[in-house]
Design goal:
The protein is α+β, with helices and mostly antiparallel strands. Helix content is about 50%, strand content about 20%. It contains 16 helices and eleven strands. A hairpin with a 2-residue loop joins strand 2 and strand 3. Helix 3 runs antiparallel to helix 4, helix 9 runs antiparallel to helix 11 and helix 11 runs antiparallel to helix 12. The relative contact order is 0.15.
Amino acid sequence: MKLSNLRAIPMVAGALLLSACAQNYHTKVADTAQHWTSGNVEGALAAHDKAYADVKPADRDLLYYLERGELLRSSEKNLADSTEAWQQANNQLQTWEDDTRTNLTKGAGELGALLLSDGFRRYEGQDYEKVMLSTRLAGNHLTAGNWNDARVEIRKMYERETLIAQFREKEVDALKAAAEEKGSQAGTVKMEQIKGYPVEIFDDPEVTSLRNAYQSAVSHYLAGFVFEALNEPSLAAAGYRQAIELRPDVPVLKAGLERIGAKRRPAAGTTDVLFMVESGTMPARDTVKITLPVPIGAGIKLLTAAYPVIRPSTDKFVPATLDVGGKSVPVAMVTNLDAMARRALRDEMPAAIARSTVRMVVSGVAQEALERQGGLAGTLMSLAVGVASAATADTDTRQWRTLPSRISLARTTVKSGTHTVAYATPSGIVKTDITVEGPYAVVVLRSIGPTLMAMTSKHDGTLIAAAPAAPAAAEKTKAAPRTRAARTVARKADGTK
């Protein structure tokens, strides 16, 4: 081994270490998260801009626009900019959707090769993030008074759920086929077999009770409410039924469906208000590294496995009631995004284990090849590869951090006009004034630090407090679903059985 090669060892290891650090999203947005959780929204925006200062606008990824849209929305004065940022995110998700439709036509081997590939990959978002993007865009449209635009986003949410269901079903088959083709046991390794991995994060009843990692009761209940407001009772009932199926233990969800059955509309001068109460922040997605000395060939090799982990949020506060102009309104937690993130991770683990196994094998082979060259140089180079592999072993730590960890619902009818809304938090009482108009309104409440942010929908003239029209014909999705899971999602969206 030449002296120049020996001198290159620390340079290569150092370059790999810097590369790994650059990929740690948790570190990248640490300042943003700190300002955000303290309630300093403007400081969080400035920190977020600084974190992406060296990235050209054309190169900014999906996560940049997801976070920026949330921060702008919470500043209470940049709703249009927030919507624009989320539209940019929607455009990037369109690329994922197009690629996914293409992958659905590929064989399992081709898709499996994609799943097992290593290196830097475009961030395509977690499944629940894709659905929540549509939900939050719908909320922005409601705040701007564009109820029909909100309806369009809800339809997009249904289509997105159908596509996710199709892709995930095919993905499982592809991963198994790829593992069998390569004669690898990576696809059969169980999480319980990974010593040192905190498998208890998946044992939470909030995780185990979830049907999947993308459908949320709050999204479907909001869909039902919007359809009800737009005098489309059949579609409203479908949305409420889906929310009930996802969370059958929540009375407020059942009450929405009963109201549709009774064909009740708000009386003149009153407003039916849906409160969406958001609390907490999403926990960080991190990496668990396990380095083991493994005998390969003539000696011991340092092999490092890296697995993604999400430890549950410690902020689990949800208000029990809201005070709305002196009226106590019960609050029910209906969507736990923290749990959905961990469910998504649990579903992802087979692929993560496979990728980690491939990296370990590559590292072990490289170390063995270097040692065979003999001498001190070969030994040192082999050791350097092992150390560098341990330092650079990492997982994708990107995640939409500014989302709330929990979303609760409350619903009541009040006189149209201005009301003070307040509720108790561990830090004290938070309150704000809201003005509701028209027969239906959606109010989003989120406490960030010591402040309470409120977003109230506007009345756009399309909402009429009158007897409901004849049931609208159930709309059909653009493409016929190809799998049982996809057909189920589509039937719920259309209100059919």
